[in-house]
Amino acid sequence: MASTVSVQRNKSPANGIELRGKVSAEYAEILTTEALDFIAMLQRRFGAERSRLLKLRETIQQQLDAGWLPDFPSETAAIRNSDWKVAPSPPDLQDRRVEITGPSDRKMVINALNSGANVFMADFEDANSPTWDNMVSGQINLRDAVNRTIEFSDRKTGKTYKLNEKTAVLIARPRGWHLLEEHILVDGQPMSASLFDFGLYFFHNAHKLLENGSGPYFYLPKLENRHEAALWNEVFVAAQEALGFSVGTIKATVLIETILAAFEMDEILHTLRDHIVGLNCGRWDYIFSFIKKFRNRPDFVLPDRHQVTMTTHFLRSYSLLTIKTCHRRGAFAMGGMAAQIPIKTDPAANEAALAKVKADKEREAGDGHDGTWVAHPALVPIAREVFDSKMSGLNQLSVLRDDITITAADLLTVPTGAITETGLRNNIRVGILYLTSWLAGSGCVPLFNLMEDAATSEICRAQIWQWLHHNAALEDGRTVDRSLFQAILDEEIAALRQEIAAHSPWQATFDKAIDLFVGLVTADNFEEFLTLPAYRYLVSF
Question: SS3 for 511?
Fold first, then answer.
């Protein structure tokens, strides 16, 4: 980065915008008066509806706690039963067989775009710790990537990274509706993180992307219903009209990563039909959502997370329903993440890990998915080989899966399995280590040969909360109570403290991560997202 000179920006009575994060000369290229006015317009127009929809989530949770179980909405049966299609997809999104994801840091952006994947999803969300520097520098990095001026010099190795002639198609993922960007106030209130991320990227890059033969493409996370999709649609229309683009210029893929959204796939596609090109099976957040929504029901306690694979009935059902729903509507059905990373020190373990990746991708391609996600460039060739062998065309929109019928009961079938001490220990270790890294400013973390983001940590802490809350039994008969948890926690903390002794960036945040993690899993009430209380550790003015 060029300049780190701080510039003080005060609230202007004329525009009601106050920046509370540092603004270097380089940051000022993103945080221009025009760009800030644009995102403030979005906040003023849609902030109240965002708040209303978050209140609706609370109401629905109360209904779930009272015993209500979700089903396909009767009031939208006409949408599900009628014939309609989403708008056509642009040429550069017709073939999405391999997509790589990762945070928006400079080296990652270059390597991902050069990885040989069809698409790179640059993540402002779960793979990104939302420090002010990460969020603004990420916008700079994507702007430079769009303009093909991005370079990175590694001081340790002396290597310089530049874009290849042919690169992956760029898609940005803004943060979810539940998050705020505390470093910018609009009329005295923090603005929506979703609108901040989306608005800055769209404002600075839409024209250049179209000039390059691509377009402003987005992944939309954490939606729970058609109403939240409708809000995004209204945001898209307003943004396009404000900058002089025709409606439908923006294209979006929605992650189906909440159990409630699984019952409204048709409705989400219909609501966004001018802008949407597909749905994605966000498997890790989907598992977290399943635990979270039914957290107060003892009959919905899940076994060790490693046993909750995509071959379990409720997850396989959701995957097949995504394919059937999308293809009927002319939309792509994207598969889930392979989080494995190469195990260079153990060839046998590496071979076994890659075999799991291949089997998972063979299931996805065989079922009819149009593409899949990987977290590491080394997995791109494996995923591509599988989809190349099973997918003769650019996609599998012709695979309609009329042979299957998925019911509400299928989506709500609780997987069977054991709760083990090993599973409890692993959840503690991964949960604390991930938070340690997140609080230190990195949200994409290699842990135990897997590339983890916030979704995994969410599952870890949600499972422990669920097991403690319902006095779940381990397979050896012991009860997961406070005393057992504390004893294992003390042992794991001692071991982890030894492991991170040589990892200086983590030492400063390790104890904070422990306090946060323990508070989350032992609280009487379940925190909706760990990133909400964790974000308070990152914000300082």
Answer: helix
Q: Tell me the whole-structure pTM to 2 decimals.
A: 0.96
Out of 50, 143, 173, 429, pick the active-site residue: 173
Q: Strand 450-452 to strand 445-447: parallel, antiparallel, or no bridges (unpaired)?
A: antiparallel
Nearest to 311 by CA among 347, 356, 370, 247: 356
293, 294, 300, 305: CA torsion to nearest 10: 30
Give CA angle at 417 (412, 422), nearest 5°. Answer: 125
Cα 532 from Cα 537, distance rounded (Å): 10
Residue 316 falls in the annotated catalytic set: no
Catalytic residue, candidates 360, 429, 453, 461: 453
Q: Which DSSP string corresponds to 65-89? A: HTT------GGGHHHHHS---PPPP
User: Which of 237, 306, 315 has its CA nearest to residue 283?
Assistant: 315
**φ, ψ at 207 (rounded to 5°):** -60, -45
Locus of tokens 């001490």: 421
Give the residue from 384, 335, 390 showing the smallest Cα distance to 364.
Answer: 335
d(CA 502, CA 243): 50
SS3 of the chain: helix, strand, coil, percent, to 5:
50, 15, 35
**What pLDDT digit, counting tens, does each position of 397-416 carry?**
999 999 999 999 999 999 99
Measured CA to CA, the distance from residue 96 to residue 364 in angstroms comes to 13
**pLDDT category, 541, cuts 50, 70, 90?**
confident
For the question of residue 453 being annotated catalytic, the response is yes
Is the torsion defined by CA of 134, 201, 284, 344 positive or negative?
negative
Half-sphere exposure of 315 (CA within 13 A, CB side): 26
